Amino acid sequence: MILAISTVSQGLLWALLALGVYLTFRVLDIADLTVEGSFPLGAAVAATLLTDGWSPIPAILIACIAGMISGVVTGILTTKLKIPALLAGILTMIALYSVNLRIMGKANLPLLKQETLFTMYQPEGLSMPVTVLLIGFIVVLFVAMINYWFFGTELGAAVRATGCNPRMIRANGINTDVMIVLGLLLSNGLVAISGALVAQNNGFADVGMGVGTIVIGLASVIIGEVLFGTRSFKNSLISVILGSIVYRIVIAVVLQMGMPPNDLKLFTAILVAAALSLPLLQAKIKKRSVQA
């Protein structure tokens, strides 16, 4: 029971990363590798501030701002310097490795004796796994509602239209460069919040904790879309969150079945490849059934 609660709570904390990846991968139609740097950036900033005596909520907010700045850097490299988005993300990710080391002062920063968001707001009588689940649910619900509201506004619709049809949106007088930078800003802000929360839950921040996060985010997005659909933007947000939880459940199951932890990255890559190829396989099966 505790393992199940812990798995779902981990899925909720990582759902913010999945939402950030969804904003770039699906909304902006950009493969942004900045997340592999902004995730540990959020963890590094939050952990450093907590060890310096800051309260958890301001630490998380500043971590979010730091993540937003990293997204802006990638956006400027893409829009102003005309560097391909994939390469721009890689450049920012590499630069953030050194930045994160500078922020923490070392490769690993423990938080075992620091007050975190989960210890500060732990209700009396509730265990830590249940507390993480409760706080994670509240945070994810709040973030999802803010995203749903924002992308329903005129500005949010312009961001969505930029990813869908940039020529059309430019013809309507919208600066697509600004929309791309804004989308990357929002995406990496969410990723940094996820990093800050995961670090507080795990009890440490590590400079290498961002390795493979883009694959984890993509796995959550693809699994959510395949299992729960994309009928509307609201449905897509819910699907991504549920996809993150399902992904964590799958990981927990395969670990319980005896898979070595060192093989998780390989398993995730295969899972994402299979999920991405699923629509093509379904189309081929449907075509053969019609021909038959």
Could you write a compact summary of the structure shown?
With 292 residues, the chain is mainly alpha-helical. 77% of the residues lie in helices and 2% in strands. A two-stranded antiparallel ribbon has the order 1-2.
Q: According to CATH, what is the class?
A: Mainly Alpha
Task: State the separation between the terminal residues, measured CA to CA.
Answer: 48 Å
- The CATH topology turns out to be ABC transporter involved in vitamin B12 uptake, BtuC
Query: Could you state the order of secondary-structure elements as H and E?
Result: HHHHEHHHHHEHHH
What CATH architecture would you give? Orthogonal Bundle
Number of helices: 12
Nearest-integer average pLDDT: 91
Envelope shape = globular
Radius of gyration: 19 Å
- In total, the number of strands is 2
Class by alpha and beta content: mainly alpha
The main pleated sheet reads as: 2 strands, antiparallel
Instruction: Report the β-strand fraction as a percent range.
Output: under 5%
Number of structural domains? 1
What's the helical proportion of residues? over 70%
Strand order in the sheet with the most strands: 1-2
Uncertain runs are: none
